[in-house]
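Entry 14. Ran structure prediction on the chain below.
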Amino acid sequence: MGRLEDAVEIRKQQLIHKLLKHHIYKKDGQQLYELTLSEIERVHSALYRKSS
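Output, structure tokens:
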């Protein structure tokens, strides 16, 4: 894998880990690991907007 792909995968795993801590496992019937980084970032952002 290239550096960009590695960086994307690392960021996805970081965000998924944070979402799992909040008991968020799926979005629209899809597991988090099936989503793109952009989709995971939207879920993450929505969580922190809601909790603010």
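Residues 3-51 form one domain. Will compare against last week's run tomorrow.
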